[in-house]
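Recall from the previous lesson that a structure prediction takes nothing but the amino acid sequence as input. Here we apply that procedure to diguanylate cyclase from Poriferisphaera corsica. The sequence below is the only information supplied.
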Amino acid sequence: MNPKILIIEEEARLLDQMRDALEQHFGSSCVQYCCSVFEAKEQDLLHVDLVLTSMDLPDGSALDVVENLLVKRNDLPIVVMADESIIELAIQAIKQGAYDCIIRGGDWLTGLPFIVEKNLAVYIVKMENEQLRKRLERTLDQLRVKNEQLEMVVEKLEDIAATDPLTGLANRRAFARALGRYFAASTRDDTDLACIMIDLDGFKALNDTLGHQNGDKLLQHTSRVLQQFLRRSDLAGRFGGDEFVLLLPNTNQQRAIQVAERIQDEFRKEISRQIMDEHDQIKLSMSMGLATLRVSEAKSPQALIECADKTLYAAKRSGKDQLLVYQPKRTAKV
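The prediction returns the following tokens.
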């Protein structure tokens, strides 16, 4: 180890004694020196490993050295040398940022190299800790970025896992989870919950006549029609095949009937314009079964779905292209 030590000392005799003690310990050419605060400020501090400064200087004190040199290089190790009579000033210098204080008395020159060595070791440890801190900050920053990216991927995967790829609606699994939440909220808040099951009449004939590609287009179009009449709090899902299901929270039977009728009217108008005008042999329509929590008195989410599903198939058996509403012991046509 051959450190570069800057001594700031006005008295030539002391300077020579310190230089001899340090060069005997660390090797020759380890010491450079100056005599004042002004000269110290002019030094190239980037190539200095440690500063030894006398407390009393011709143009100031060690306090001025600490203040000025730490402005130029804030990690610079500075050790103050002082007589016992001015120990309070040395303590003040340490409070300002000096590393250590050497009391000039007795055989202090013998211990000087070891004090320098100790403070250089402290400096090295501080620098290593600072490097570790910076590396840790960089690692944490990278970890935060990776976590954000992971959250985005997970969110995207959750969306994919919850979405029917053809229609963009909730798939059956996601719908079942949402139904449980909606049912629990309605039960807790004593509000109504409407469930509408939908089946496309004539869908199989369309597939057989015009092919599955046109069948897929019909399903996509139906999805757009459904979403056109839903609120942000409502949920539309594809139940399977050509079956769809709607959940309308905080919606009573009369309000749900209005929504269902608007959807049916829009479907008839759009399908007539896009398909049936060109293929009059294909008859397309929409059957619906509606059940509400309060009227059905369903005790579970599955029971509410079963009421709506039972009503849907009653609509299909009794002529299709209609909306039926679940009533206890009977099913009412709208």
